[in-house]
Amino acid sequence: MAHVQRPLWIQSQFIRQYCPIKTRRRTLPLVTNGRRCLTTATVTDNDIARLASQPLYPLTLADLVKHGRPPLTTSQLLTSANFTLSILPARLAHRIQSLRNLPFIVVSNPQISKIHSNYIHSFSTLLPWAEKEIKTLEDEIKFAEVMADLVQTHANTISILARGFLEARKYISPKDVTRFLDEHLRARIGTRLIAEQHLALHFSSQPHNDIMHETEETPGFIGVIDTKLKPAKIVQHCENVVGEICELKYGVRPHVVINGEPDYTFAHVPVHLEYIITELLKNAFRATVESGKERESIEVTIAPLPEIMPENNGHEDGDTRPNIKNTDQGNEDIASRAFTKNASPRSSDQMLRLAHSTPGVTIRIRDRGGGIAPETLPHVWDYSFTTFNDEQASSSLTGRNSGMDALNAFSGPGGDGAHSLAGLGYGLPLGRAYAEYFGGGIAVQSLWGWGTDVYLSLRGVGRVEE
């Protein structure tokens, strides 16, 4: 591939998000350039309506790895750029329409209005590209700048939306907020992942940029997807981080025992799994310590999923493959359209069946922390901040909550971190959204007075060409 220099501000943004910790520490001091301006187009209502009228389709991990292993050839990299360009404008238009469908007094809130403005900005940077094909490396580099700007622009979406809905909660019910957020944040997962995947392929396909060349640290990566992801390794990492904070807060830490098949590997997005496991271990650690059972081990069992999941045996056409639905990925705009007269979904719930050979994993996390109270269990999937009173809301958004708040201070795969999400009740519902996005799920079995079993299932990618 041609030796083409990219603006360093893209490198800076990318290194922070994707490079291994050791690499990141070596290279960040070398990156000092600032952000440059991008070409934008004026966004009209017709532009939004035209692209928002396009139906969206489920996305699979296989779609993201189909361009091949890095370093990509010029042709493969341009194909990846055009694939990304073919699906992002419509997804942004759907999100803008979704926000506009909210009650006007809610959209007028400064925080929610800021999110709307961010989407308009990103849409304006994509419009100049929407009607053309990327044919040269120079154009691909400029397009990568747009992707880097999109990722950076929406880094704090979740915390801003949280504050906005807290401020507007007098004008919208908690149930409607939960439904809207679940749909909006699921759609956001796909938008960010599509942009991040092309950025990762972009950087790993430039011969003169050696910071992302394959090393012993990242031997199986295709973009942001690890084709040799070992769940046990993620569990061990999360145990160390959560355990240290637990010990700092309580003076003790439970022990985690990993059994089943700890050497099992499959293909998935590591930062997604890390976020989910962190949230599940955080809950298990807290329950275990606060119930006085810190001497009881937390048991993590890793079991490969069968190629055909039994719960999906029953398709009328006899096809027993697992599937991904548009509703799992927030593509139907059902929640937001409920606020308008045209409340029916724009298109039928598209369903994409995964290949029989698609591997996956089930991870069971079992604790002896006393279980979940019966009155609480029905609400574990709610974005629970919607029920906060003023004092609780203020404390959560300023990081002053009591308890293990530090356990919420993780930067998730969506970019939000620090204390911005502390205590807001995002953990389980957002974790389930990440799990369900590619055909997995989370199930909770609680025995009140005894403990809780959480079952996390994830589907990966089928056979990846070497």
From TrEMBL:
<keyword id="KW-0067">ATP-binding</keyword>
<keyword id="KW-0808">Transferase</keyword>
<dbReference type="GO" id="GO:0010906">
    <property type="term" value="P:regulation of glucose metabolic process"/>
</dbReference>
<keyword id="KW-0496">Mitochondrion</keyword>
<comment type="similarity">
    <text>Belongs to the PDK/BCKDK protein kinase family.</text>
</comment>
<dbReference type="InterPro" id="IPR039028">
    <property type="entry name" value="BCKD/PDK"/>
</dbReference>
<keyword id="KW-0547">Nucleotide-binding</keyword>
<keyword id="KW-0418">Kinase</keyword>
<dbReference type="InterPro" id="IPR036784">
    <property type="entry name" value="AK/P_DHK_N_sf"/>
</dbReference>
<feature type="compositionally biased region" description="Basic and acidic residues">
    <location>
        <begin position="313"/>
        <end position="322"/>
    </location>
</feature>
<feature type="domain" description="Histidine kinase/HSP90-like ATPase">
    <location>
        <begin position="268"/>
        <end position="462"/>
    </location>
</feature>
<dbReference type="InterPro" id="IPR003594">
    <property type="entry name" value="HATPase_dom"/>
</dbReference>
<dbReference type="GO" id="GO:0005759">
    <property type="term" value="C:mitochondrial matrix"/>
</dbReference>
<feature type="region of interest" description="Disordered">
    <location>
        <begin position="308"/>
        <end position="330"/>
    </location>
</feature>
<dbReference type="InterPro" id="IPR036890">
    <property type="entry name" value="HATPase_C_sf"/>
</dbReference>
<dbReference type="GO" id="GO:0005524">
    <property type="term" value="F:ATP binding"/>
</dbReference>
<dbReference type="InterPro" id="IPR018955">
    <property type="entry name" value="BCDHK/PDK_N"/>
</dbReference>
<dbReference type="Pfam" id="PF10436">
    <property type="entry name" value="BCDHK_Adom3"/>
</dbReference>
<keyword id="KW-0597">Phosphoprotein</keyword>
<dbReference type="GO" id="GO:0004740">
    <property type="term" value="F:pyruvate dehydrogenase (acetyl-transferring) kinase activity"/>
</dbReference>
<protein>
    <recommendedName>
        <fullName>Protein-serine/threonine kinase</fullName>
        <ecNumber>2.7.11.-</ecNumber>
    </recommendedName>
</protein>
